[in-house]
Specification:
Shape: elongated
Order of helices and strands: HHH
CATH architecture: Orthogonal Bundle
Strand content: under 5%
Number of domains: 1
Distance between the termini: 70 Å
CATH topology: Helix Hairpins
Length: 108
């Protein structure tokens, strides 16, 4: 049997470390990848990391502001995904590949 003394409570630091780790993975995905779909997923990962921080601080401070801000961030993330996927579909129609370097040819 496991005693209750051996259980670790999850505190604010655990959520912030998780958030920082997810944000770092997302930032590396944006900086190192060339595929548009992977870049969009990395941006979503970064936004979700920010959401974790907002909810963690809102819960820790017993304040509702952070949880309300998460709704705004989720709305922005949905709009970003819609616009990004529309651009990716347009690039795929023209070049038969979704690569970030094709965005240089979208002038005019």
């Amino acid at each position: 049997m496991q005693s209750t003394e051996a259980l670790v409570s999850v505190g604010l630091n655990h959520y912030l470390v998780l958030s920082a780790l997810l944000f770092t993975i997302g930032a590396l995905g944006v900086l190192l990848r060339k595929n548009m779909i992977v870049i969009l997923m990395s941006i979503e990962l970064m936004l979700n990391a920010v959401n974790i921080s907002f909810v963690a601080f809102a819960t820790y401070l017993d304040n509702l502001d952070g949880k309300i801000m998460v709704l705004f961030v989720m709305t922005i993330a949905a709009a970003e995904a819609a616009v990004g996927l529309a651009l990716a579909v347009n690039i795929f129609k023209n070049f038969r590949e979704v690569n970030i370097r094709f965005f240089e040819h979208l002038r005019g």
